Amino acid sequence: MKNAAELSLSAKLRPEKAKQSLNRKFRFARRRRIAGQALWHAIMLLFAAAWLIPLIWMLRNAFLPKDASIGAGWSWDFTLDNFSRVWQGAPFGQYMWNTLLVTSGIFAVQIVTLTLAAYAFARVAFVGRNIVFMLFLVQIMVPSDVLIFSNYQIINELGLLDTKIGIMLPYFASAFGVFLLRQAFKQLPYELDEAARVEGCSSLGILLRIYMPLSRPVYLSFAIVSISFHWNDFLWPLIVTNSPENRLLTVGLAMFAKSTEAGAQWTDVSAATLIVTAPMLIGFLLFQRQFISSFMHSGIKG
Amino acid sequence: MNTRWNEKLRRNGFGWALVLPSLLFLGMFTYYPMLKSAWLSLFEQNLAVRTPVFVGMDNYKALLHDPVFVEVFRNNIWFAVGTVPVSMALAFVMALFADKAIRGKGLVRIAFFYPNMIPMIAAASIWLFLYMPQFGLFARFASWFTGSEVNLLGNPDTVLGSLIVMTVWKEAGYFMIFYLAGLQQIPKDLYESASVDGIGVLTQQLRITIPLTMPTTLFVTVVAITNAFKWVDHLWMMTKGGPDHASSLLLYYIYETTFSFNDQGMAAAMTVVMIVLLLVISCFQFAGWERKIHYQ
């Protein structure tokens, strides 16, 4: 403030000189802003580069010949041997198929349970709705990871240990999904409901023909979140399964990594890690925008 | 009168029928296990005591005097203290960058978010090599610093810190997403009028962005703290909780107590402790939700 007052004072006295000094001041400020921007960009891009190190490290080791990985320097050698060795060393094809079955199975059942419950919470006034709603909240607060010990016993009592159904069963209902979808259903205009009813559509028909198609983006969001979660889940599938026929990708990778002699065969483990992560990584790179916006979506509402 | 009753009955039956499938699965794998854990935690049952013996609160008392449990609990607190603020601050700064239309924002978004897309177990196997003495990139870097060979995961003093660094790498991008969403809800004219008034960029962040993203911060804090008690896969892969329990966390200790030591009473008691802990943390989230609703 003081500076400005001085400037305006000097402007009255010596207009030419004041103009010059003002110009210099603006130029200085502009230069400082550009320098600040450049620094900000540099720091952020440096961070991004640092974040990519593990990925680059994995890619490099996955394609590197075994003996070259132990050398200290950088090597440009390239090979696909690691992949063929890994593919023969463990049934990763089978694991991938299992993972695909389990994740899509969970999602398929979830769609049904979610849609029904979300519709009830959004549009059907039944006695005890608020209490049941509170009960649903509990599942969001206490995730099944914490309950592995008792859930294992239940799966055991049901005789479903080491089955794919055993892996899927605890996730067939998702309170989180119900919340997400209930919000979407509530935002649909009530008039649609009435119009359809006048046309003679049943409640389930309305749900199937109006609510579900109109909420497609929310279903997509939930699909991405649910599928990426179950594709990556480890501890529960590890506990439930013990034969290769039912093992998932994550468990297969862990077994493979533990069985190899650490150090000497890390090119193999890198290749295996790449096989396991590739589907999700490729999907993410291709549909980056959808992934990020669906996570945003689920975050805001969840 | 009769038809109204009929209508009411039909509506209630319909509503309950719709929630029943979800309720059935939730009951089987959330409510029943919770109650069962609470009940089992009152009994002693392990390899020595095959048939459960009622012991009341003894399991909880034993937990308090179990040096390993106390250490694991302390580790978990440190793990939360180490991961939560750092990953959130990074997420905030990254979101500021990725939000504006500036060069390289796509790359930053991808670089920052991709760790979230790969399973923790895969991330752990990559980082295991990065930390491996002699060959690992970070281990080489560390030994170049200290002048001697460093075993980051084999040393009780460095193991928890190493795992914290990895977790921050894995999680920060996830929280960035929430901040991105939060930033988009701030009206742009606030910044414009601030600029017109000659308020600097840093002051704008301090006075506008940070206060207006407070609901997001609250939400992310709760998610981050909850996650700090849930991460466990990396321990299985990298350290098995060692050396000497220096890196073990609560959920991993429950897993060990259940499946390695077969001590069911203690595992149940620890599960109850975890449940209570998570419920308390989640209560803060409710406060946050309440506030968010008021905003709208």
Automatic annotation (TrEMBL), chain B:
GO biological process, alphabetically ordered: transmembrane transport
Keyword flag S-adenosyl-L-methionine: no
Cited Gene3D superfamilies: MetI-like
UniProt cross-references to InterPro entries, sorted A to Z: ABC_transporter_permease (IPR051393), MetI-like (IPR000515), MetI-like_sf (IPR035906)
Pfam families per record: BPD_transp_1
Domain of life: Bacteria
Cellular compartment(s): Cell membrane
Protein name from the UniProt record: Sugar ABC transporter permease
Positions of transmembrane segments: 12-32, 77-98, 110-130, 159-181, 212-232, 266-287
Membrane topology category: Multi-pass membrane protein
